[in-house]
Amino acid sequence: xxxxxxxASLAGGILIGLSASAMLLMEGxxxxxxxxxxxxxxxxxxxxxxxxxxxxxxxAGGLLLKIALPTAFDFGIVRPYGAxxxxxxxxxxxxxxxxxxxxxxxxxxxxxxxxxxxVATCIxxxxxxxxxxxxxxxxxxxx
Amino acid sequence: MKSALxxxxxxxxxxxxxxxxxxxxxxxxxxxxxxxxxxDASLAFVMLGAIAVYFVAHRISRTMRSPxxxxxxxxxxxxxxxxxxxxxxxxxxAGWGLGGFCPGPAxxxxxxxxxxxxxxxxxxxxGVYLHGWWAAARETKAQSETASIAAAAADx
Lengths: 143, 156
Hints:
The complex is a heterodimer.
Chain A: H1 6-27, H2 33-41, H3 48-68, H4 81-97, H5 102-111, H6 115-138
Helix pairs in contact in A: 2-3, 5-6
Chain B: H1 2-21, H2 26-33, H3 42-61, H4 83-99, H5 103-109, H6 115-155
Helix pairs in contact in B: 2-4, 5-6
């Protein structure tokens, strides 16, 4: 585990938790990014403002990272375009069908002890692991 | 106005958390999902940190009548585990493992200006629309079936 970064990852996780907590306690909203993204693409008047502001904040935060922590965008592995397109379609379709992603199910849902979110998180980690196994160990495409 | 600012700042903090934790780097994500290879357990610590904080926030929210800046909590209440949840999570996980990006890090990484991220996000948007069409088509089909059953019942 030469890349193991438990302290940075824990610290980043705490920031993610604080952000999601602020959305819950101040605004009563679940900080689920796939729902926010879809809400901007298929806008419903009711939730458009906070979703647009949150998404703008993500990009602004990304710009801050670009200046202050450029290594955050050392992707390390960049799949070919065909694979990225397939991956994006799967992520977009799958998160709508399953009502959430790593943030909504993996963080907010698990913390609420939601059975749906616990099941969803186990499944998406398992299916992700299967795909990584197939790509890295049978197709030999580790990098 | 205050609510818009809080949403924006929460987005900023969320993005910083993703960047600091390693979630914006597919090599970390794929390393975490590579249980049978050189497993990188770091992302388990992201979940640990985030869940520890949010668990407390959720407990606090249950003692509040309403959130500070809004009239009510908008919290999902569903408890049923249906096929859509299972299939949806499986498809999402497959895409996550294939590309190394989930929605939050992908949107945050748009700021890097890297073309592959933009392509991934565009495909993700297409996936959302594809689901919208699919869901609408299913609903129309279900409605016309219900209608034809009703018509048949009326004939009889």
